[in-house]
Backbone:
């Protein structure tokens, strides 16, 4: 399974980078509470801390997006970028499973478990087995 579609590793990264930049990174970074409302969160009256955490999370997502864009366009750091993407998928699954078990998140967040599982599986299928580091 590892690297079955590795010939298309850069194209896959470019597609994931564009989608996640538009749906997650930029909205979370620029308008975190609006993004939270889109995904079903109920926002309390005092939101400064939530905005701060949202912008911090958005900033880190943008870093991952930049890694994917660079690797997709140039091939530079391709293996490392896939390792980061697989780590993101795995840890985000843990975070979302935890929230689902505790029943502290809207259904959209619980459904993201499947999205991250799919992203992780696809990252393994597109893993660049013979690419330069």
Residues:
């Amino acid at each position: 399974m590892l690297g079955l579609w590795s010939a298309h590793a850069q194209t896959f990264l470019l597609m994931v980078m564009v989608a996640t930049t538009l749906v997650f990174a930029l909205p979370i970074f620029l308008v975190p509470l609006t993004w939270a409302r889109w995904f079903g969160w109920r926002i309390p009256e005092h939101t400064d801390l939530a905005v701060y955490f949202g912008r911090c999370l958005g900033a880190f997502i943008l870093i991952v997006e930049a890694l994917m864009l660079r690797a997709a366009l140039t091939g530079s750091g391709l293996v490392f970028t896939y390792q980061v993407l697989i780590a993101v998928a795995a840890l985000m699954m843990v975070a979302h499973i935890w929230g689902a078990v505790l029943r502290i998140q809207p259904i959209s967040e619980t459904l993201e478990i499947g999205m991250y599982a799919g992203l992780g599986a696809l990252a393994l299928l597109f893993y660049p087995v013979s690419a330069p580091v």
Observations:
- The chain has one domain: 6-126.
- The chain is about 75% helix and 0% strand.
- Residues 16 and 50 are 26 Å apart (CA to CA).
- The helical segments are 9-30, 32-38, 48-74, 78-102, 107-126.
